[in-house]
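Appendix C. Worked example: Prophage protein
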Amino acid sequence: MNELEFNIRLYLTGTMKSWTDRIDSTGKETPQRFILNAMTELFDSLSDDDLELIRLRYMERLTLSEVASRYLLHERTIRNHTNPTIKQVKNIIKQGNELSIK
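Step 2, the predicted output written as structure tokens:
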């Protein structure tokens, strides 16, 4: 499981919030808090359909082909709906990692 998949799974299961609250109860902007807050903002902005596509890809671990078959869509359509979110999650993780280095 790569870092991207790991963080998405942590977020969608609620584990990221639980761990972040345990690690830091002060509410200060730690790398973990930054990632949690940014991912919350991102995932809250998604449509229910896009969130479901992300959930199927990263929680159910379905391939693009399997998701496309389930919804009778082209793989390209699934990719077009999920890639912008995935790119944003990668950027959030990168920014959070940069905070931890400082």
